[in-house]
């Protein structure tokens, strides 16, 4: 019998595919050449990719055609809001990319400023399940107009009074004279799987992949910081280093007033932090990326 292989569904083209492929590559998965349109076979791990439209991923995973998938929370929760068929899907790991927000928005020049103003009005969206549930939970009765795309033009074309759509930079809302007034969902790419009927041999492969992905995600947010600190301001400087638990303090040759501080920072290090460190007397400050991490 051939070795069981983990089948992972990834978007073939779009906002989730670049981030997904980059994450797999950083997790050490290598793909053989000679790919066809739909499948790619890893040559250093028992893993096969299925390249599909993101909207089909929940259905492939719940139906067992794939074991895991990379999909936006917006698509996952929309499918779950629409049908019980997707109730068995669960998030195995949040992946930290393709972040966006599902927002209610209305024409800046109009009278809709809050969710209460939507009573008796209409909302155009590609997310009827999430939008309906959000409004129902708040006791607002509004008509939902389902649209597949170009939702942002609906108010201008007189199709609906407001919209509920994904926003990242906000430029699309701005360009269409719309202003967001309510957040329905914060979304990012997630690794999704069935919560029941998983296959033990596949889970062993998945466990390794998840652990490596966690390492990649953690190292992307983590930096290594090196600096020299005057001994009499060491406490103040240590407190300024973001998200580090136990910095290493080392002697510097021929200096007894200054020590070297090395620390892993589990948070982003901003220019403002470096400026504060320098103001506290730190010198020769270096911030380095971390390539791989394992606890
Ligand atoms: O063909 P397929 O169905 O696979 O692709 P698709 O067209 O459905 O998906 P794609 O690639 O556009 O998006 C895939 C996923 O990326 C979404 O399901 C979200 O999880 C995530 N994502 C992150 C986004 C955005 N950011 C985003 N900005 N999806 C869509 N947008 C839209 C937004 O609605 C707006 O119309 O992009 C436009 C630009 O946004 P602004 O705010 O930057 O102007
Ligand atoms: Zn799609």
What key attributes describe this structure?
295 residues; alpha/beta; D-Maltodextrin-Binding Protein, domain 2; Alpha-Beta Plaits; 3 domains; 15 strands; flat; binds phosphoribosyl ATP; binds zinc ion
How would you characterize this protein structure?
The chain has 295 residues and is an alpha/beta fold. It has 3 domains: 123 residues, D-Maltodextrin-Binding Protein, domain 2 (3-Layer(aba) Sandwich); 88 residues, Periplasmic binding protein-like II (D-Maltodextrin-Binding Protein, domain 2), CATH 3.40.190; 68 residues, Alpha-Beta Plaits, CATH 3.30.70.120. 27% of the residues lie in helices and 32% in strands. It is built from 8 helices and 15 strands. It has a 6-stranded mixed beta sheet with strand order 2-3-1-4-11-5, with helices on both faces. A 5-stranded mixed beta sheet has the order 8-7-9-6-10. The longest helix has 21 residues. It is flat and about 75 Å long. The chain starts with 5 loop residues before the first strand and ends in a 6-residue tail after the last strand. The relative contact order is 0.14. Bound molecules: phosphoribosyl ATP and zinc ion.
The CATH C-level class name of the largest domain: Alpha Beta
Q: Quote the beta fraction.
A: 25-35%
What count of structural domains? 3
List segments where confidence is low: pLDDT < 50 over at least 5 consecutive residues: none
Annotation, overall tally of beta strands:
15
Q: Ends: how far apart?
A: 35 Å
What is the CATH third-level topology name of the largest domain? D-Maltodextrin-Binding Protein, domain 2
Tell me, rounded to a whole number, the average pLDDT.
94
Helix residue percentage:
25-40%
Which ions and ligands are bound to the chains? phosphoribosyl ATP, zinc ion
Name of the CATH homologous superfamily of the largest domain: Periplasmic binding protein-like II
Given helix and strand content, the structural type is alpha/beta
What is the 3D shape?
flat
């Amino acid at each position: 019998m051939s070795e069981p292989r983990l089948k992972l569904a990834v978007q073939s083209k779009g906002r989730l595919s670049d981030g997904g492929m980059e994450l797999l590559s950083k997790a050490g998965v290598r793909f053989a050449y000679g790919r066809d349109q739909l499948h790619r076979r890893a040559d250093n791990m028992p893993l096969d990719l299925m390249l599909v439209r993101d909207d089909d991923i929940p259905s492939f995973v719940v139906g067992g055609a794939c074991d895991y998938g990379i999909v936006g929370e917006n698509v996952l929760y929309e499918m779950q809001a629409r049908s019980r068929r997707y109730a068995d899907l669960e998030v195995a790991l949040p992946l930290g990319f393709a972040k966006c927000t599902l927002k209610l928005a209305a024409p800046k020049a109009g009278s809709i400023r809050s969710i209460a103003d939507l009573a008796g009005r209409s909302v155009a969206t590609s997310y009827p399940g999430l939008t309906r549930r959000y409004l129902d939970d708040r006791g607002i009765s509004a008509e939902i107009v389902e649209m597949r795309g170009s939702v942002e033009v609906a108010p201008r074309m007189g199709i609906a009074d407001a919209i509920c759509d994904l926003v990242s930079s906000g430029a699309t809302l701005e360009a269409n004279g719309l202003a967001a007034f309510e957040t329905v969902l914060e979304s990012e790419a997630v690794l999704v799987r069935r919560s029941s009927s998983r296959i033990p041999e596949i889970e062993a492969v998945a466990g390794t992949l998840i652990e490596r992905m966690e390492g990649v995600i953690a190292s992307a947010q983590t930096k290594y910081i090196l600096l020299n600190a005057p001994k009499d301001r060491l406490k103040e400087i240590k407190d300024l280093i973001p998200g580090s638990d136990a910095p290493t303090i080392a002697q510097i040759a021929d200096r007894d007033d200054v020590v070297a501080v090395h620390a892993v920072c589990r948070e982003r290090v901003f220019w403002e932090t470096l400026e504060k460190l320098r103001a506290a007397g730190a010198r020769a400050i270096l911030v380095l990326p971390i390539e791989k991490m394992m606890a």
